[in-house]
Hints:
The protein has seven helices and no strands.
Amino acid sequence: METIWFYAQLGFEHVLDFQGLDHFYFIIALVVPFSFFEFKKLLWWVSIFTLGHSLSLFGNYYFELKLPAIWIEFLIPVTIALSCIPLLSSKEINRNNLFISMITLVFGLIHGFGFGRYFSLIVTEEDALLDLFSFALGVEAAQIAIVIGVLLVRLFVLNVIKIDKAKWNLIVGSMILSQAILMMFQKAPFQ
């Protein structure tokens, strides 16, 4: 039970680590245009992200699927920047479930490869699957906490402060995009 708790806590802290806000930014960009009425969809999407993240960790550990770290570290902020693009448009966000699901899975895969090397070093060989599952539970719990937090902030901003929905998306999307671009320049493999 201690091992389960350790890896679940590690997964939770991995997402909310202020040293690396990539998960945080991506989840915010995914959630910000949606309301509590779409909570089930959002849970589905963050679970798909967790699945992609876990598949990368699984592949890295069991099949030594290792992609060059320099490119993964660059692609992570690229995925964040891409997730901001719909927020910058004044048009209604496309709620195409399949498209968002596929993009979220790919983003999860890329983000998982970024953590794969470290995870492979700390996981125990005899309990690797349990460790991976526990880690995924922690990741999922942290992402759900972010979803709920973003939805509450959105509710306050749109209903109490009365900021227009398109303006809110633009503000948040611009803030996250600026951070993603900064991260891209810091991690650029062609410097």
